[in-house]
């Protein structure tokens, strides 16, 4: 539960007391990490020492549900010369390490990131006559923070979040988010590490799809060029009724389509409703589980398998001449949230293929024939997977949100995969890899063209390539939600 108040319930010696003797008199009550972030806020808003603030009444480290201790809300006058409108500016406190005593984040030193290394911000256009900032963005930020804490998956500039609902629970077309560097807030060095500021940018569904098919940074640059859609500071206007492609129809063809053709897609994987069946001959022993499918109980992924899938998603975004599936290691696990896009912490590193698959992993099963199953939303991303990833020598992973199943498509240019041209279907437990040649990808794109027209789609839908021993089915959500029916 949250409270809203001036000063937001900070400690008595907190930001509300300014930089005088208060914070010096009670240093234990004013956490140094919080002080560092607040100092950056004071730099921008010296005339607003006591902003309206949403505070978690029961702090996360005391068992409360909300990871952010505070969300401060400032009034920003914008910049008329740059065509930046007046807006409300929200800043979170809690994704970084505020305390340095391991109550929330492990203290790892001053040189690296503080906590998760970032705080969230949000800029919401101020409506005429609005005297106080709406508080719903604070709950939105808490929702994103909960995902980060639960998954330990951090965000980076250019990432996108599929929200599938108006951000303010209205009838708005702004139903998804992109993330970018805040245009005014500078990175802060605190006693517990460095904190950067990532700004949430509200976008329409069509803009999200363009970001998925191309990349988030490209769409953010387009949004900056359209004042009504964000302008240079990327102000979110929940009343915006047109997408950037409706405002300027040339942007789709001249910028996005050309960008996809030239750059491919930076989306390396998604959480999805998916499953797969091994249609090969029955195994000779129980260790070769024949079917990883809806209606059966799949063998669970080992911790190492799970880490490799997550590393594939997290680190598979770098454009290299020879993309490599990442190694299994003991780093912090990073995953995907239920219906959100994946993020990553750093770029893909060059690794020798000998280091990719340790000998101690479970035996790789080579399959003769497979059947892939997706719901409509996941299936609609198959052309993106093929055109934006595999044709550019990369890989793409579907990770089931209803179980341990994972499906990774790889191209012949990806090193370290356990699927090969000789044996294009291979599995570690419920993790399936499918290697597709460029020639077959081109053919699949032709056969799957109707996936681009969901309004004309009737389920179930099946595609089959008998000579390749591959079948793909697009099924209703209910099949995945009720697997035993």
TrEMBL record:
Domain Suppressor of fused C-terminal: 254-474
Region forming the signal peptide: none
Any Pfam family hit: SUFU_C
InterPro entries: SUFU-like_domain, SUFU_C, SUFU_C_sf, SUFU_N, Suppressor_of_fused, Suppressor_of_fused_euk
Domain Suppressor of fused-like: 64-240
Cellular location(s): Cytoplasm; Nucleus
Biased composition (Gly residues): 1-23
Family of this protein: Belongs to the SUFU family.
Protein name: Suppressor of fused homolog
Naturally occurring in which organism (per UniProt): Acrocephalus arundinaceus
């Amino acid at each position: 539960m949250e409270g809203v108040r001036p000063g937001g319930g900070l400690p008595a010696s907190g930001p509300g007391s300014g930089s005088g003797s208060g914070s010096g008199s009670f240093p234990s009550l004013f956490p140094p990490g919080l002080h560092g972030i607040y100092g950056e806020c004071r730099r921008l808003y010296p005339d607003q020492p006591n902003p309206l603030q949403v505070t978690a009444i029961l702090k996360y480290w005391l068992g409360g549900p909300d990871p952010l201790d505070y969300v401060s809300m400032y009034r920003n006058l914008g910049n008329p010369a740059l065509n930046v409108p007046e807006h409300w500016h929200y800043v979170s406190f809690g994704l970084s390490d505020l305390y340095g005593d391991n109550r929330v984040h492990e203290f790892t030193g001053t040189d690296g990131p503080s906590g998760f290394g970032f705080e969230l911000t949000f800029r919401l256009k101020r409506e005429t006559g609005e005297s106080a900032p709406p508080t719903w963005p604070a709950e939105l930020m808490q929702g994103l923070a909960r995902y980060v804490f639960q998954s330990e998956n951090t965000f980076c500039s250019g990432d996108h979040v599929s929200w599938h609902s108006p951000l303010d629970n209205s009838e708005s077309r702004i139903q998804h988010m992109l993330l970018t560097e805040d245009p005014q807030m500078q990175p802060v060095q605190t006693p517990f590490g460095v904190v950067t500021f990532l700004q949430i940018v509200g976008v329409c569904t069509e803009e999200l799809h363009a970001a998925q098919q191309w990349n988030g940074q490209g769409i953010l640059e387009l949004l900056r060029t359209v004042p009504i859609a964000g302008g240079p500071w990327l102000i979110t206007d929940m009343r915006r009724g047109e997408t950037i492609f409706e405002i300027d129809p040339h942007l789709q063809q001249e910028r996005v389509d050309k960008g996809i053709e030239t750059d491919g897609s930076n989306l390396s994987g998604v959480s999805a409703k998916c499953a797969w069946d091994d249609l090969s001959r029955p195994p000779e022993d129980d260790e070769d589980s024949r079917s990883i499918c809806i209606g059966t109980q799949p063998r669970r992924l080992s911790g190492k398998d799970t880490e490799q899938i997550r590393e594939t998603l997290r680190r598979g975004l770098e454009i290299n001449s020879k993309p490599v599936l990442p190694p299994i290691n003991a780093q912090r696990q990073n995953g995907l949230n239920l219906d959100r896009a994946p993020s990553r912490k750093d770029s893909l590193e060059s690794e020798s293929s000998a280091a990719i698959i340790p000998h101690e992993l479970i035996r790789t099963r080579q399959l003769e024939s497979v059947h892939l199953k997706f719901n409509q939303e996941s299936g609609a991303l198959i052309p993106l997977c093929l055109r934006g990833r595999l044709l550019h020598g990369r890989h793409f992973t579907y990770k089931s949100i209803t179980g341990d199943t994972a499906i990774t498509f790889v191209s012949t240019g990806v090193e370290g995969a356990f699927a090969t041209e000789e044996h294009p279907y291979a599995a570690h437990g419920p993790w399936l890899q499918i290697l597709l040649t460029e020639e077959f990808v081109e053919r699949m794109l032709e056969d799957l063209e109707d996936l681009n027209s969901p309004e004309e789609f009737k389920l179930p839908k099946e595609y089959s390539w008998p000579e390749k021993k591959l079948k793909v089915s697009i099924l209703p959500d209910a099949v995945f939600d009720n697997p035993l029916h």
